[in-house]
Amino acid sequence: MNLKDLLDVSKDNSLSGQKWHMLRQSIVKRLLSAGNATIAEISSELQSSVPTVTKAVNELLQEGNVVDMGKITNSGGRRPSLYSINPTCAFFLGVEVGRTHMSIGLQDIKNEFISLDLRVPFALKNSQESLLEFCALINNYIEESSVEKKLIVGICINFSGRINSMEGFSYNYFFSENRPLTEIISEQLGLPVHLENDTRAMAFGEYCEGVVDDEQNIIFLNYSWGVAIGIMTDGKLYYGKSGYSGEFGHSTLFENEIICQCGKLGCLETEISGWSLVRQFKEALKEGKHSKIELNENEDLQHLDIISGAINLEDSLCIELVTRQSEKMGRYLSILLNIFNPDLLVIGGDFSQLGDFALLPIQSALKKHSLGLVNRDMKLKKSTLGHRVGVIGACCIVKEKMLSPFFK
Ligand SMILES: [Zn+2]
Description:
This protein has helices at 3-6, 15-34, 39-46, 50-63, 128-144, 181-189, 198-209, 274-286, 303-312, 316-340, 356-369, 372-376, 389-403; strands spanning 66-71, 81-85, 91-97, 101-108, 113-121, 152-159, 163-164, 169-170, 193-197, 218-223, 227-233, 236-237, 344-348, 379-382.
């Protein structure tokens, strides 16, 4: 039996068969969640006798799901063996979908990448053809990898916008009233599918593998084309009632008559975001300001060009615009700090590439506008995982789901 089936419900309906399956499943989940263990440790934690656990572990060894790591050193007596999950017996697939690119990666049980393709060109459109093309890209990726599909436990896909992870619906992309998107994609891929909001997955990626040390109450800012936050409380992702928490970018803060991407007027994103940065840059040029970035009439300028202009060209206009935005961002983040009093605020997304150009204005505005006691309690860090953060978060979420008693 492979690990994926082992984590599924038992096919043996007899009471003894069910109990035996549950014990083997519990041993696997114990080794996955808390790392390597001896038989005595497993027996004590699961409150099952040593001979019974020994028999179950031997079965798992024979199947190749568990490996013997050798004898541990102790102060004397007979040295027990340490057991671990076989890293080659289960894999997780993580996908992050952007407007023009997607990133995809396959991780083993120890969260090591087997393969990772960042920013593969893919034009995300709200059509059936685009969805089929998306599924075909994932299927090709699996076929070209060195891992058999049956060993992939599941896939987590991150989209921007409103995602109901519990029910599997995506409201901004590929929305279907009749069926959850998870079901439609699962049919195409032949794998269990989980959907996640992109910012929430990034927050979880930083928590599991990135800049987070032992902080448990975290706000992760995704400052990119759009703006959103991921919230973690007591080490758990916060979803809200239906999964729409974190839409910080659509707080209507300005009376500027600018229509936001969400359709409302004056959202935070209309003045602080990648897409508003592009507008501000074009307006500045029209007003007669100069930049080293040459702009043709038909050229599709991206916020990343302006960010790169600030970093690589030290272009004065680009620096002025990103600094001004970051200062404003700090001012509005201070509201969140006063409300949440987090241990840690992580600045992530494309703007985090700017380093001090973004961090210093944010930091000084936070100091200026948030309550002193709240600010003193909190650490400010820059995301360290770069473009990999979303895929890492997605893979960690699949692993987390697998360990949950409700995983199917
Ligand atoms: Zn909006």
